[in-house]
Amino acid sequence: DSDCLWAGLAGPQILPPCHSIVRTLHQHKLGRASWPSVQQGLQQSFLHTLDSYRILQKAAPFDRRATSLAWHPTHPSTVAVGSKGGDIMLWNFGIKDKPTFIKGIGAGGSITGLKFNPLNTNQFYASSMEGTTRLQDFKGNILRVFASSDTINIWFCSLDVSASSRMVVTGDNVGNVILLNMDGKELWNLRMHKKKVTHVALNPCCDWFLATASVDQTVKIWDLRQVRGKASFLYSLPHRHPVNAACFSPDGARLLTTDQKSEIRIYSASQWDCPLGLIPHPHRHFQHLTPIK
After folding, report:
1. Residues 68, 76: contact at Cβ < 8 Å?
2. Fewer C-beta neighbours within 10 Å, C or N terminus of the chain?
3. Residue ranges covered by each domain of the chain
4. What fold does the segment set 149-280 form as a domain?
5. Where are the annotated WD repeats, by residue (predicted)?
6. Are 197 and 183 in contact (CB under 8 A)?
7. What is the pLDDT of residues 53-74, one digit of tens each?
8. For residue range 152-166, what is the model confidence (pLDDT) as tens digits?
9. What is the 3-state secondary structure (H, E, C) of 81-135?
């Protein structure tokens, strides 16, 4: 399924790696390079700067691994992190104050999804192996339960939130996806995948556009205005291995997917049937890429 990728590479001239972004743009202004080659040059310039990156700060507050994280929508130095034991930490690494810490239930409480409430950033949405998708505050109070499982065999693996459409979407470990409004009213509950839904993502520019990823080795694209059942997806993107995540770019035009073996894929909204890029990322067993923020 990578043949179409390589077939398209013999196109516009690609500039040689350039360490200067200004020089790359100057080449374009002089008419010596097309815009696609400029984009490639800018990417190369950015990659060269990665050598200068250093660890700014680090913390180890959990007795189990970190399973989810969310950047604060307006404070760039603040991040919320969830753990496999259900612990949640709000950390402003720009100040020396002690982070806010909410103790979880331990085994079986893994935080699988975490999102700040876009209407009130003192609150957050969380999905967990405890069997709920809920809204709570950083004092530990549960304000509303949006979805709850009646059995220990079913839990929630992912969630996303849209402020403009006031919607919450969550997926579980048997393939179901639930859409609710922010008042907690369930709009629909459908089995969209054959196996666990590892990730759900609303497009940041078109919030009726939904991507769902699953261990059934597919990513599916949906129009929420036209969902009628499991066969009503707009596109199905087959993968060779179970998929961990499907994340839209900030402009909503691209989709990044990560699998449980060794592959990162980039898809474009103009050509969903074929990835723009395949990036190898080898890892050891059970150390696959988690969602990138």
Report:
1. no
2. C
3. 21-52, 149-280
4. Methylamine Dehydrogenase; Chain H (2.130.10)
5. 190-232
6. no
7. 888 888 888 988 889 999 999 9
8. 899 999 999 999 999
9. EEECCCCEEEEECCCCCCCEEECCCCCCCCEEEEEECCCCCCEEEEEECCCEEEE
